[in-house]
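Design job #97: recover the sequence.
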């Protein structure tokens, strides 16, 4: 059973902030998430990661897999490093149909190409 923390969470940088947000979304305590990892992690390891106080690629991979299973979507280690505002948008983007994603990709590509063109011709 998850208890409410008496300490406010103040970390704003990835990957800690994203691990914390995903754990909160899954409504798990540090111990519960640690136990869901394969092989299990310690709850103190999860706390250190959430506070950006040290992590390894292997630990982040185990966390990403466990969180992905709990939240029923694919979560990669790269997802943990996106800025928080992008991470939320990216989850919505992944839920779109392939056709909708293709249209967005095309618009982003065209906008970027227009920006590069204007930049080259302006100077």
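Job complete. Output follows.
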């Amino acid at each position: 059973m998850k208890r409410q923390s008496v300490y406010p969470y103040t970390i704003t940088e990835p990957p800690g902030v994203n691990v914390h947000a995903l754990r909160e979304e899954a409504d798990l305590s540090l111990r519960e998430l640690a136990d869901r990892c394969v092989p299990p992690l310690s709850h103190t390891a999860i706390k250190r990661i959430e506070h950006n106080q040290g992590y390894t690629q292997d630990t982040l991979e185990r966390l990403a897999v466990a969180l992905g299973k709990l939240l029923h979507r694919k979560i990669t280690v790269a997802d943990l490093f996106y800025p928080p505002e992008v991470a939320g948008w990216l989850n919505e983007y992944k839920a779109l149909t392939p056709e909708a994603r293709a249209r967005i990709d095309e618009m982003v590509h065209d906008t970027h190409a227009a920006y590069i063109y204007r930049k080259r011709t302006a100077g």
